[in-house]
Amino acid sequence: MNTHRQAFFRRGLLAVALVALPVAAGDAPPPDAATLRASADGKIQATDGKAIYEQVCQGCHMPEGRGAVGGGSYPALANNPATASAPYLVLTIVNGRRNMPAFGSERSQELFVAQSWMDDTQVAAVVNYLRSNLGNDYPEPISAADVAALRAPNGDRP
Fold it and tell me: Which segment of the chain is annotated as a signal peptide (predicted)?
């Protein structure tokens, strides 16, 4: 295929993709902005584990928890044996790990991430969601008190 035909073909594909995008998006209602928005100090407002995952985690770990590689490497959370350890998940969320920012307090944010953080109840909710969804089956819940106890050695309290 010559260069002119390749360029024409690419433009045609782009046009089809742009027309198909709204159709592929479907009629799903947008998330309730008030539920997802962080407060002025950056505290995440959502309290449900699924909503927190959708607001905070899925941007890197993807909606179905499959992870991603690109500008960084984001591990899959779906069917991940590491989710068997609730303390591991809590400490990763609170303190961050490798290229994952910390969400433990308003003081723990990285400069490249819009400031957002979670309290103990929210951390417990998202950990419980991760452990019992996305193909993971670890139904034993962790409580906000458990999260507080895990945070205590670090003194990282909101």
Answer: 1-25
